[in-house]
What we know:
The protein is of the alpha/beta class and 143 residues long.
Amino acid sequence: xxxxxxxxxxxxxxxxxxxxxxxxxxxxxxxxxxxxxxxxxxxxxxxxxxxxxxxxxxxxxxxxxxxxxxxxxxxxxxxxxxxxxxxxxxxxxxxxxxxxxxxxxxxxxxxxxxxxxxxxxxxxxxxxxxxxxxxxxxxxxxx
Length: 143
């Protein structure tokens, strides 16, 4: 849970959450992540279109749960978050970051070229392939 409520954000932003659903997170940790993201989404101005939110989960497989253009209200986003199911498995962080870069941060998925992109990765940090994750991160941050 958030310990301090952030001020409402009215700035334009394309915000993507990347949630680790691997075995090391455990179901209880995954539920905490869902709660945190749901509370955080409440602070963004989604209804006016200033903020767009996308979400991806990963473990052994990577799944885009919703793109930036999928939902237009906080309630819709929070409902989708509440339905996410913990999957267990390996920690495939490199592929998750690559999927965000190649699929989610594209105009076809709702990315706006004139709006800042913010990608929030929630993980315990234990990637299966730390070198591939580092390469994916460096590639990601040089865009």
